[in-house]
Amino acid sequence: MKIATYNVNGIKARLPRLVEWLTETQPDVACLQEIKTSDETFPEAEIRDAGYGAIWHGQKGFNGVAVLAKGADPVERQRRLPGDDEDVLSRYLEAEIDGLIVASIYLPNGNPVPGPKFEYKLTWMERLHVHAAGLLATERQVCLAGDYNVIPTDADVWKPAAMASDALMQPESRAAFRRLAAQGWTDALHSRHPNNPLWTFWDYTMNSFARDAGFRIDHLMLSPAAADRLVDAGVDKDHRGREKASDHAPTWITLR
Fold it and tell me: Closest by alpha carbon to 188, among 121, 134, 235?
């Protein structure tokens, strides 16, 4: 089973690139972030024409997450991250597909630092810890996939000094990510490439992609039952270099 996460940076604007990627790589499950469209305007017909069933949690112009399954309809388990009834932003969607629990996560960016957006990021991560602990307690195969907006270590960025003041690299952000892993989650990409970090994001400015000035913020975190089945993990970097592409590259794992 191939599971991917892909921040598409606007599903309607990037629809040709998304369908192209689905057709070429054929993931069994695709978790999308920043679809930036309302529930009513999600391009369900085009996704189905590409061979995928879908569920989505949209928001006009901002945020938004979706889960796609090849030849099947994902069964929704959870819409919105529990823990704050007043948080209505579309950042979390959890589904079940062929016995696997998968979540599409768009974690808050948190900039500028300090400020209320950074506090919201840390509070959101704490809510994620609580919910993730409950998922671990089921002892099932679970994959928490998405754009975490966290650069875990200095090895995960082309130039640490360039991002030192960013919310993605603050000690609090990194500590929260480590606490999640310490619960028992496996960072799949790191586990397969511990000595050769792979970037998943390149900014549109300053010729970043051509210079390979990127960093890793898209993660697939696996429960022990899923990690035991991990075969491979990688990044479809070439899709970032195509015309009118997202600033993220699709990131994937395969499970036995």
Answer: 235
Residue 237 and residue 245: Cα distance in Å, rounded?
11
- The active-site residue, picked from 28, 106, 166, 187, is 106
Prediction pTM value: 0.98
> Alpha-carbon distance 11 to 16, whole Å?
9
Contact in structure between 198 and 157 (CB atoms under 8 Å): no
Encoding tokens for residue 38? 């309302």
Q: In what order do the strands lie in the sheet with 75-79?
A: 75-79, 92-97, 100-106, 142-147, 218-222, 186-187
pLDDT in tens, 149-207: 999 999 999 999 999 999 999 999 999 999 999 999 999 999 999 999 899 999 999 99
Helix, strand, coil content of the chain in percent (nearest 5): 30, 30, 40
Whether residue 106 lies in the annotated active site: yes
Is 147 among the catalytic positions? yes
The domain tally of the chain equals: 1
Q: What is the CATH number of the domain that holds 78?
A: 3.60.10.10
Select which of 28, 52, 147, 187 is catalytic: 147
Domain that holds residue 92: 2-255
Torsion, Cα of 54, 56, 58, 62 (10° steps):
-80
